């Protein structure tokens, strides 16, 4: 856990420029959002502050885990802040598996790369511990690797 006891975070330097990472994050979310072999179904996604997101993650054995919430802040090329504690029309909802405020931040790194940080802030330390035990670092780390793969492909396509 981070210095804030209720926050879990991963940081990576991705081998792609920030604009490619941003495009991968927003235009290709189904390609990186959940660890393979799971897949992502985009049900609703309104990329603006106050916009709704609703993503369904489908497992290889027919499992389905929903991800419904609200985008609190969308700062293009820099940051996305979201929560699963609010649903459509800003209505409080029972978040699964626990309520979080999630953040993705991007910054330029040397050599045309991108500093990527993904974090989940929890209402209390117990929920943060539970999320950690569920495999936060591994799962969100795999997603960061997948995001990098998509961003590198977008960069290579743009350079071709």
From TrEMBL:
It holds the Pfam family AHSA1. Residues 15-150 form the Activator of Hsp90 ATPase homologue 1/2-like C-terminal domain. Signal peptide: none annotated. InterPro entries: ASHA1/2-like_C, START-like_dom_sf. Belongs to the AHA1 family. This is SRPBCC family protein. It comes from Sphingomonas lycopersici.
